Amino acid sequence: MKRSEPDVVVRRQEALAAARLRMQEELNAQAERYKEKQRQAITPCLGKEAELVPGDPAGEARQQVDEAKPP
């Protein structure tokens, strides 16, 4: 009978748990970087309040209003 076998199993389980934790932390960091990148890409679009519509046949420049912004 091997007495050290349970110790080996416990060490392997601990190593697996530590590896999973490291992987999860890396995934969380990647998700945060992606979220920040998306926020930076969207922010300039939300900053527009209105823009002129090119080629207006009536000759009057109507404005497009950003519906996402409150009046």
UniProtKB/TrEMBL annotation:
Keyword set includes NADP:
no
InterPro entries per the UniProt record, alphabetical: Selenoprotein_S
Where in the cell? Cytoplasm; Endoplasmic reticulum membrane
Q: Where is this region: Disordered?
A: 47-71
Could you tell me which Pfam families the record lists for this protein?
Selenoprotein_S
Major site of localization recorded for this protein: cytoplasm
The reply on keyword Ligase is no
What is the protein's membrane topology class? Single-pass membrane protein
Q: Which keywords appear in this protein's UniProt record, sorted alphabetically?
A: Cytoplasm, Endoplasmic reticulum, Membrane, Selenocysteine, Transmembrane, Transmembrane helix
Q: Name one GO cellular component term.
A: Derlin-1 retrotranslocation complex
One GO biological process this protein is involved in is: retrograde protein transport, ER to cytosol
Query: Could you say which protein family the record assigns here?
Result: Belongs to the selenoprotein S family.
Task: Write down the PANTHER family for this protein, in alphabetical order.
Answer: SELENOPROTEIN S
Q: What is this protein called?
A: Uncharacterized protein
